[in-house]
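Re: iron/sulfur cluster structure - here you go.
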Amino acid sequence: MLEKAKVYFGSIQQGQMARFASFAAKVDIITEKLIEEIKIEKKDKVAIKMHLGFRDGYQTIPVFFVRRIVEKIKKTGAYPFITDNPTSVYNAVNRGYTEYTCGCPIIPISGVKDGYVKEKKIDFLNVDSLSMAGALEDADVLVDLSHVKGHGACGFGGAIKNIALGGYSGPTRWKKIHGVNYAYAMYDPDKLTTELAKKLVAECPYHALSYNEEKHELRRNYHDCHQCMRCLEIDQGLGAVKLPREAYSAFQEMMAIAANEVLKSFDKEKVFFMNFLLDITTYCDCLGMGQAPIVNDIGVLGSTDIIAIETASLDLIKKEGLIEKNIPPYIKHVDLTTPDLHPFTRVHGPYKDPYETVQFGEKMDMGTSSYELIEILSPSETMKMEAPKRTFEDEPTFF
Ligand code: SF4
């Protein structure tokens, strides 16, 4: 029988009002366990890949936890640095991330001009190469530190998305990885009339369709498409516009391929993953704005297996279910009735199954979806523990 991968879990819920039972204590223990399980050596350069957010987004991983993780890595004698795309790094201070607050340098992942990259040859549909970020290529150890949330293009953003999209230069991220959907034709130029194209654009409830009349080109923004099928209704079987299911899967497979390329540049024993299931929003942090959480806070997960941690994250979110009143009012096609649908599929549409990327990854031997969830300081366990005398303002105190 295949061995199950270990996934540590710290619930946001605590068994009693005491620091030893708190969420921070669980994050600390999980970090220590993961550091012990991998081979961090003195002077290793440790890339902590995060998404530091954009503009007005404030729901990325709190600097409070980032600093604690950084400090624990520093105790090993290694040199951690936080890294993300150059734009997010440049204005990270606006969201509270600085060298002073995080405890280590923050470095643009692909250089200050987004050109410090290593080309990776691949052969997938319309993509033949990816420009991987140079800072990842240089690092000895990878800590993939992810905020888990929904994602417009594939339903889910976690550890895979953090390195698949975040581990590459801007042109690779936006044009190649996000452009893979266009490997499949989504309209027939001979059947499409200008009049029909304009009607399709006008009636897409999510403004996901655009038309270039000069080039006679119809384009779908797959990120924004909720598969409401309105365009197919207008088409009435003519075949002028299509909704190719494979185009949606192509993005999921592309994500797994891109993440795998990043992981292949590290020794397997020098990588760990932490997923924070807090502020679980509809869309990812790239949108650069705050969003109402659509799933309650769950906690933190840690593992050395990317497929196991992603599967466990999705399973816990599925079990938790949607906070229906927080679903954005502009999303009008939310399936709340079909049994067994994942909350992210309910919100993002039937062709955006968040498990798909993980399944592609498992087929590529990136890890296993068979996992053992090991809860750290569970509420039932800490409820039985004896609490020390509580102090409100301990040393140093100015009280
Ligand atoms: S399926 Fe709906 S959301 Fe998607 S492009 Fe067609 S009309 Fe727009």
